[in-house]
Write a structure and sequence with these properties.
With 357 residues, this protein is an alpha/beta fold. The protein has helices spanning 2-17, 19-31, 48-58, 69-79, 93-101, 111-116, 178-191, 193-206, 215-224, 234-241, 246-254, 283-293, 296-305, 320-326, 337-354; strands at residues 35-40, 61-66, 87-90, 134-146, 170-171, 229-233, 255-258, 269-276, 309-310. Strands 1, 2, 3, 4, 5, 6, 7, 8 and 9 form a 9-stranded mixed β-sheet that branches. The model is unreliable at 1-22 (pLDDT under 50). Bound molecules: fe (iii) ion.
Length: 357
């Protein structure tokens, strides 16, 4: 509020008292704590430490608006040039790509980010040398299964999830959730549209129940016997693996994990990333924040706090759960993010046709 009417008062008073008050006002502005406004789809409580570390390091305060990817993009569009957003954090590569195409980001020029983030994990450089978004961490979409009922070779590909032998045994969250839309968009690239629709139909036929809940609920569904096989992002599984709660330990004892498609195109990988809002009035500090997220300490936080794989070159990390579940390394799918993003409208139409809620 003060930003709106304080200058008006000053302009009236300075007419009477001259430049002494102007300089007092300028000093007040200079001393006002710097702040950035972040719109974030990262819904992980462990990130609080990241934000407070940044403020401690730089003195720059963080104001945050939390919403999901779609909500953030809708809000940016609605706010237009008046948007107070500086930094945008999303948790899906296709949404980052979509926002870039929709012109919601300000291409960033940062030598540090260019050098730290591998080329396949960021937007293509624009003609003026800027980059619309940078991946900051990755997560794999894996299959979990009931160790008592199934063996690893039963479910070592995404295609097998549609096998008739899993009728009534599959738990999976909503098909329209970005994590699934991106997985299905990638499947469409590998299998072609016709086979992908047949595959999605197979998934619907195999569902133990209507899609509901988040990824952790699907893992719990396997442990409780409600289903025999489920799909989850790796960090949800790692969170349970590292939990000291006896209930979580009991869940982990019952489920096995597969990194699918190791002998074909590799496991589907998604990106969480950051960008600068097109109408940011604070670009210098916003870039500082993204550069901080690419630093070794923030990257380690992604690995140890939220169990994601860091992406900055040369960063080492030690997360026993990530190592245990993947056996150290795994083959991940390599696809142009634009292809996965472009497939999503068709995938959504397929989901409607096959009744995947
Ligand atoms: Fe998530």
């Amino acid at each position: 509020m003060s930003q709106v009417f304080f200058p008006k008062i000053i302009s009236k008073v300075t007419a009477l008292t001259g430049c002494l008050l102007i300089s007092t006002f300028q000093m007040a502005l200079a001393q006002a704590p710097a702040a950035i406004n972040i719109y974030s789809a990262r819904h992980y409580p462990t990130d609080e430490a990241l934000y407070s570390d940044f403020t401690k390091l730089t003195g720059i305060k963080i104001n945050r608006v939390d919403a999901d990817d779609a909500g953030i993009l809708a809000r940016l569009k609605a706010e237009g040039a008046a948007s107070p957003a500086d930094v945008i954090l999303l948790v899906d590569a296709s949404r980052l790509w979509r926002a870039e195409i929709d012109g919601l980001f300000l291409p960033i020029k940062s030598k540090l980010l260019d050098e730290a983030i591998p080329e396949n994990l960021r937007a293509k450089r624009s003609d003026n040398g800027g980059t619309a978004w940078f991946g900051l961490s990755t997560r794999a979409r894996v299959i979990v299964y009931d160790k008592q009922k199934l063996k690893i070779t039963d479910v070592d590909t995404y295609e097998k999830l549609a096998d008739a032998k899993f009728k009534g045994k599959l738990c999976i969250r909503s098909g329209s959730h970005p994590y699934n839309l991106s997985l299905f968009g990638a499947m469409m690239d590998h299998l072609g549209p016709q086979q992908t629709e047949v595959w999605l139909k197979g998934l619907v036929a195999n569902m133990a129940r209507n899609p509901a809940g988040g990824d952790t609920d699907q893992i719990k569904g396997v442990a409780s016997g409600e289903c025999a096989v489920a799909v989850t992002n790796t960090y949800y599984l790692a969170r349970l693996m590292r939990s000291s709660s006896p209930a979580d330990k009991a869940i982990i004892d019952k489920v096995g994990v597969v990194f699918p498609n190791q002998s074909s195109w590799g496991t589907h990988l998604n990106i969480a990333g950051g960008a600068i809002a097109k109408n940011s009035k604070n670009t210098g500090n916003a870039i500082k924040f993204l550069e901080y997220l690419a630093s070794a300490s923030a990257q380690n936080h992604f690995a140890n706090g939220n169990n994601e794989w860091p992406v900055s070159k040369g960063v080492t990390f030690d997360n026993p759960a990530l190592k245990a579940m993947s056996g150290g390394t795994f083959k991940s799918e390599v696809l142009p993010i634009s292809a996965v993003g472009m497939n999503q409208i068709k995938v959504q139409q397929m989901l409607d046709r096959v009744g995947f809620k």
